[in-house]
Amino acid sequence: MRAVVQDRYGPPGALQVTSRGVPEPRDDEVLVHVEAAGVDPGVWHVVTGLPYGVRLGFGLRRPRNPVPGLDLAGVVVSVGRGVRDFAPGDAVFGTGRGSYAEYAVAAAGKLAPLPACLTFEEAAAVPISGQTALAAIRKARGVAGKRVMVIGAGGGVGTFAVQIAKAQGAHVTAACSAAKVDYVRSLGADGVIDYTRSDPTCAGEFDVVIDTAGNRPLTRLRRALSPRGVLVVVGGEAGDGILLQGFDRQLRALLWSPLVRQRLVPLMATQNSADLRVLAGLIEAGGVKPVVDRVFPLHEVAAALEHISGGHARAKTVISLT
Known about the structure:
oxidoreductase activity, Quinone Oxidoreductase, Chain A, domain 1, Rossmann fold, 6-stranded parallel beta sheet, 322 residues, single chain
């Protein structure tokens, strides 16, 4: 099979498309013929090995899994002995190991049936970003009737967060760059702030602030909260620390939250079938629509990763294997 392979950490240009054997699923896994794979900032971190803290989980000297990629959508080829929910021929989406290949294995508990209304490319844009946004909304413990601000609303997680919050009855203010203002407004945001011209933390008091941009100090973000508001800190791609980049904000939020009246919540989302099915329901009901910015062929995987690395991509970027 064709697969993207990395034998060391480094720039995306070091990735190679080569031929590898088809992986074998374990008892609780599914072998998927991959039709499309999502391009996520997490993959960029694993490919580059930056910040260095990433290597503690994925291999100190080189990536433990030589084939990158997590998000996928495709068709089940075979299933492990313990799998009961899927059968060969089923169209699925979710997360797996090494999705930048023609075939990938995935835990059955991290897959769900492909919504009939989505293409494979659209479905591949959903798993990690959609589940992260859903988890962020849940951390607020209900957003119906509340004032919610999403910072970084034009990115993968932010796009879903705006739509999910609106679908659950929130009044949503979205902050994004100038180039994404019209697009974010089209997602249903009640108000949009160009954060290159106005500081979103000075936009008033919000019941919930979801920050996906990763580059604002917690002290500034707290200014945008009501006295009992909730701040959900997602990721940290925009930070500049060599060890943890912006992810040190997660630790500070955890330590600081017990000392203040506001609730500061660090978020590292997990992937599971139940949340994928919730997202599928929202999509089928018309409340949420995955948006694909660009589609790259497999041999242009380096260009796809470079496209998202600066945070300028709109919504999601996808790799097509068809």
